[in-house]
Amino acid sequence: MIPELGHFALILALLVAAVQAVVPLVGAWRGHGGMMAVARPAAFVQLTLVAIAFAALTYAYLVSDFSVLNVVENSHSAKPWLYKLTGVWGNHEGSMLLWILMLALFGAMVAGFGRNLPVSLKARVLAIQGLIGLGFLLFILATSNPFLRVDPAPLDGNDLNPLLQDPGLAFHPPMLYFGYVGFSMAFSFAIAALIEGRVDAAWARWVRPWTLVAWCGLTAGIALGSWWAYYELGWGGWWFWDPVENASFMPWLTGTALLHSAMVVEKRDTLKSWTILLAIVTFGLSLLGTFLVRSGVLTSVHAFAVDPARGLFILILLALTVGGALTLFAVRAPRLRGGGLFAPISREGGLVLNNLLLSTAALTVFLGTLYPLFMEVAGGGRISVGPPYFNAVFLPLAIPLVAAMAVGPLLAWKRADLAGALGRLWAAALATAIVVLASLFLVSGAPVFALVGIALAAWAFFGALVELAERVRLFRVPLGASWQRLKGLPRSAFGLTLAHAGLGIAIAGMVGTEMFKEETVVLMAPGDSTEIAGMPVTFEGVSRVEGPNYLADQGRLTAVVDGEAVTLLPEKRFYPVAAMPTTEAAIHTTWFYDVYVALGEPREDGRWSVRLWHHPLVPWIWIGAATMVAGGLVSLSDRRLRVGVPAKRRQPSAQPAPAE
Amino acid sequence: MRWFLYALPGLAFAALIVWVAIPLVRGDDPSDLPSALIDQAAPATDLPGLPGRGPGFTTADLGGEVMLVNVFASWCVPCLAEHPVLTRLAAEEGLTIHAINYRDAPDDALAWLGRHGDPFARIGSDPEGRAGIDWGITGVPETFVIDAAGRVRFRFAGPVMPEIAAERILPLVEALR
């Protein structure tokens, strides 16, 4: 009964989406207020109906209703309740339902918070959201209905892929989808603006908070995913240039570019067509990210649904959405008139450079990810391009990007003095030099490339601090006056500092672990000792433990970390229902490094192969990512950007420094 | 020409969609590529083993019974996806599977096998990918079925997923046995 209710709610949602897509659009075209007003209640009803459907599926999972095919295929009665819950989106059908729930949520947020939006713009934005929802609901109902029944119902289910039974991954898809779907807002605003034929500073101010929300979600989602891969896949890597990772990374790159270019539209009334294009491309890449996995066009560890039969539907949906948007762009964008002119060396120029580098980086990742697909069409078979390609093409783009990142915020709008800006960064340059020398001292004979990486990380980090110090004129005016300035700064200024400094921290983590990690594989009998990075590690033995739905060999090792004994319990688990083994690494983390232990195979002579890693700075990757997200959130709390701020900015008269 | 600039993204996208749609619409199974090696003797190969794991892989190891030759690398994610299937083929179907470790650091390969299990009989280490040229490998993973006379009978590009093993490889292996 409950699953049928969910199914029924989905069908109703489809009808409501059709109304939400068509009526307000016609209303906005003919200037009919009543028709435009339909959008708001439709968005709320849409959210309610999709939420009912989602709740129905969740219920089926929680009570282990094995008459529902989706539950049978992805759940098991012995599974802990948390993974019963996350099993809802740990499969193709459920994840699509989650996607549409997020979409409806964003639609309802615009309807709820967008009171100050111009009526026609709001109607058009909501109509575009309705259109996207229509496409997805059709897709779900036609090809991926999660509410299908099986008769007779089996006694128990097939269990969720054990790799996905993990708290890190439990919340990774919702965050990621929040990001993906969040970019639909920028997309809808872009299409609405193209239809209206008007892009101005006010438009940019409405788009930016939505883009920022999506960006925060995506950043957090990517970070969670990489953290999961780091500790769950059991080989201590944190990024694999896997198609699915790339799929989330591409919209992140273009989304980051969009955040920056929208700033130019807001402040200087130029780069309009480019910003619109970025909004379209970013959402297009988000769709690609959603579908890349789902359609099975590319194979990956993450591919929990491989079904080429859905490929064509997906492709048509993608073609209509992005193709339609780009056609509209080709027709309407030439009419958008840019305003402010600027010299190449200026804040605008810096942001253009940022955009060029980020977009090129996105393009190289795109080519690398889809290259196997191109090869396939050209008759080459499926292949994995692998990290060598990405390291070769991505890093040369990332280096100038990060190098310029510290300089950009110090440039003035319109026309700037590059030498002056560089001069003001002397403190950052000095700090960078000290850090590089200290690394040379700590790790004698460090490779040049590692030093370049460390230098970039330090440059980004200290550059962001210098920018903040410059803004409050630290040490140029009395400290008290600086403090007053600091208190008067808009929150978005802190957002910038946090986001840029966070990237610096994350880069330090990436370079630290990639360049200085140590690893060793040893065969150990109980009582044997070995050493990793100068730390003694003793193997105590292996015992058999039993989890709720798995059996495990649990190794017990004692390491002496900074003079303290630490117990490490790596496991090799076996999930009998799914007949799959997984590795649970044991990680001891400090502020500066991780000690990472994975249990290997037993030998005939009773010894076990044990793999030990020392990962310097690796926690910084996620500390950095968290700092970046915090920057986004702080910026979002800025009253200027707060959702629903009136078109005309009520600027406090005593604003001491320009924002951003 | 200004309009062209604005139409460019749309045109590029249209080209992309058409390109991707071709195999979908044709209903191609891209792994069905005919290999030039089919029904030919397996290309002469003599690869050293991974350090500490025993002898390498040579053409002399082929023949006598139906075998598989799998091309893998530790950096290749699809290889991980097919690994449990290969393990099962070796353990449950008694298939001898030799491997070419393609463009990989031997230490990484050993570590990878240590983590995920080692179902292979012989492994030839091919860090420069020279055997890859002889075998006509376009990417990793690839799997070849070699008959008792040492001839290549089937080549599959892409990960051997359970349904591929059940529908394509095992029936052929049974027929050849």
Characterization of this structure:
The complex is a heterodimer of chains A (660) and B (177). Chain A is an alpha+beta fold. Chain A has 21 helices and ten strands. In chain A, strands 2, 3, 4, 5, 6 and 7 form a six-stranded antiparallel beta sheet that branches. Chain A has a four-stranded antiparallel beta sheet with strand order 1-10-9-8, covered by helices on one side. In chain A, a hairpin with a 2-residue loop joins strand 4 and strand 5. In chain A, helix 7 packs across helix 9, helix 7 runs antiparallel to helix 13 and helix 11 packs antiparallel against helix 14. Chain A starts with a helix and ends in a 24-residue tail after the last helix. The C terminus of chain A is likely disordered. Chain B has 177 residues and is α/β, with parallel strands linked by helices. Chain B has two domains: 29 residues; 144 residues, Glutaredoxin (3-Layer(aba) Sandwich), CATH 3.40.30.10. Chain B is 41% helix and 18% strand. The termini of chain B are far apart. The relative contact order of chain B is 0.20. The chains are: A alpha+beta (660), B alpha/beta (177).
Approximately what portion of the residues of chain A adopt beta-strand conformation? 5-15%
Mean pLDDT across the residues of chain B is 82
Rg of chain B over CA atoms, rounded to whole Å, is 19 Å
Strand order of the largest sheet of chain B: 5-4-3-6-7
Strand content of chain B: 15-25%
Q: For this structure, what is the CATH homologous superfamily of the largest domain in chain B?
A: Glutaredoxin
Mean pLDDT of chain A: 83
Which series of helices and strands of chain B comes N to C?
A: HEEEHEHEHEEH
The structural domain count of chain A equals 4
What are the main properties of this structure?
heterodimer, A: 660 residues, alpha+beta, Four Helix Bundle (Hemerythrin (Met), subunit A), 4-stranded antiparallel β-sheet, 21 helices, 11% strand, flat, B: 177 residues, alpha/beta, Glutaredoxin, 2 domains, 5-stranded mixed β-sheet, two-stranded antiparallel sheet, 5 helices, 7 strands, 41% helix, 18% strand, globular
